[in-house]
Amino acid sequence: MDNGAQYSESLARLRTRTIEQCLEAQRRTGRRLVFALDTALSLQGIELPRYRRGGLLADTLHAVIESNGVRTILQGICFVLWSGPQTHMPIHHGRLRCTDSVTTWAMHANRLEDEELVVLGDSMMRRDGHMKKATLEEFRIYVDSLSDLSNYSGSDRLRAVRGVSKMRRALRLMRENTDSSQETRSRIVLLRYGLPCPEVNYAIRLKGYSCIFRGHGLSGFENHH
What we know:
Elements: H1 3-27, H2 37-43, E1 61-65, E2 77-81, E3 88-91, E4 96-99, H3 101-107, H4 114-123, H5 136-145, H6 164-173, H7 181-192, E5 202-206, E6 209-214, E7 217-223
Parallel strand pairs: 1-2
Antiparallel strand pairs: 3-4, 5-6, 6-7
Helix pairs in contact: 2-3, 4-6, 4-7, 5-6
């Protein structure tokens, strides 16, 4: 089994385990839970980023609430407040719900370092169609919507959620159709040392051959003789 297949299988196992945990949590409450943050990522089969030390609680499910007035206590569940615009999506034949990929990315803005927010965004826009959850334009539209306070829950909002500037910085570095998080991290390292931003999946044509440079090596190498 190659590394790509092992990676996909690992995400699938994590998704299955998270679905079971979320179903068990949903059975213990009469309210409809909307899972978020790392829980939403696992439910959608998206690779988890590298969290800051002291970041999200391990072995804890996260669910979103729109105001502290609806906060409750439920063992194994950490409720997180997000008053910004949200889109929810059904999971596991509609038995579970979670925030969609773009909302989940935005909710991570103040929980990740700048580089990892870029890595997370790239991981939602993979070249592999099965792993592609959003487009760069959808991220841009969402971040722009955060500036309009009428999009927030409640009518007394005075300012946008924290992290909008950080999201805009990340958007300038995010790229569609990457293949791995390490590819993204390598691209950021090159930028940090003053090199131009590499072009993702740049096509190279050689006499008698065609190949595509992707990340760390050449792939798709064909001899046309």
